[in-house]
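Fold it.
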Amino acid sequence: MGTMSHSSTFLLPNLPTDNGPALTYALVILNQHLPRFTPLLWEHAQVHVCADGGTNRVFDELPRFFPHDDPSDIRKRYKPYAIKGDMDSIRTDVLDFFRGLMYSLVTLHGTKIIDESHDQDTTDLHKCVAYIRELLNPEHPNLCILATGALGGLFDHEMGNINVICRFSSMPIILLSDDCLIQLLPSTHHHKIHIQSSVEGPHCGLIPIGTAARRTTTTGLKWNLDKTEIRFGGLVSTSNIVKENIVTVQSESDLLWTISIKKE
């Protein structure tokens, strides 16, 4: 069984160039409060896709990160590559603004508006992930998708977003909020997590998803597991603490890894 490495270097001001094969990042904006580090993620990402109502967040909230700049200039600078979803949440004025950019000659490319209201069986995040995978993955096998606004709000929406990262288990997808991140650790690999202690931790957790996680073993945590079963209705490794720069995880079942993001 191979080992998969993980690192939250996308939260750093500069992406390291000596940390193994370079990842290609894509950013998905969902319809919850934008984390304070959204402009940083935007700079690191090659493609930016708004999921329906997430476009309202870009329009309303991104200019607040730049209080001394003209809001219209910020909206043009941070225009998404595409808006995709069932279009039930995006405001008319926001859609008209970005539709106007689509036909503007002063932009290198306009925003693509993709109405998928005919598809009511998948979430907006699912639609965006499938679109990005088709768009980028053939040329960028080391693709990682960052999704902001995936946590917070309605609990069933959060669970729907977690279901998406399980459905696309072969592709790294990281759900982000101001407080924490969540990603899937597939049981097909052992996992080595490089902790970026300047921006994340120390609080963390390992959560079984879908089934009991038997024979789970970790290193690098305050309360390590040693071939332990974790399951709902039994032991769940929440409120753990990172103690080392590298955390390792082995399990017979898929797990969710979550770690706090520092406020500084």
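The helical segments are 38-44, 54-61, 71-77, 92-102, 124-136, 155-167.
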